[in-house]
Amino acid sequence: MTTGPLVAFCAVLGLAVGSFLNVVVWRVPRGESVAHPPSACPACGHAVRPRDNVPVLSWLLLRGRCRDCGVRISRRYPLVEAGTAVLVALVPLVVTPWAVPAYAYLVAIGVALALIDLDTQRLPNAIVLPAYPVLAVLLTLASAGTGDWAALGRAAVGGAALFAGYFVLRFAQPGGMGFGDVKLAGPLGAALAWLGWGPFAVGAFAAFLLGGVFGLGLMATRRAGRRTGIPFGPWMLVGAALGALVGEPAWDAYVSLLA
Question: Which residue ranges make up each domain of the chain?
Fold first, then answer.
């Protein structure tokens, strides 16, 4: 499949996945099943009709209101659907087609984890832990398809290294970050290192840079203090995205400056 059709396919897939992620973000933190019961209006309890469950379009046609009771439906739902579509559509522009399943999967769980962490300051094991075997399989298939087995070795080393680094930070400064961040570091480190050491280094550093700047901004505006808990998972994910997008040229530029 050429790049154009693959991007279009990923965009449509992202819309459908984004719709499902809205369910995941609402139910997983509450310990509820994402498969049953079917989606329903939280205000009146009426099940969402299939024609009202088309990503983005249904929300627009219903003018952001429940068909049965008229209560407002949050704009977050179509934004998550559209945002996921855009992010998944970008994947084939960044990685080889063989690696698209691995990084599309990472984008999908990344959207869910970022929103859940912002809502609850938690990174649920139900989403993070399966990422280890799933990414291991998908990155192995990507290496088999490209013949780049060195990338798989880098992924194993990068995942272990970033996990170990976060593990040390977690216990060196208790309360500085949650253990969910430590567990998320493994898959992110593996995915970044599979792309190269430049993306790995930039992605790992960007998380702390962006999170630190955001925290300082909150303190400067007196919206947070030194002991205020700030979700770090979203910054890990944004940093990883930057590492994947611009890590290689940014790292090359940095190395050239040193040379």
Answer: 1-94, 123-259
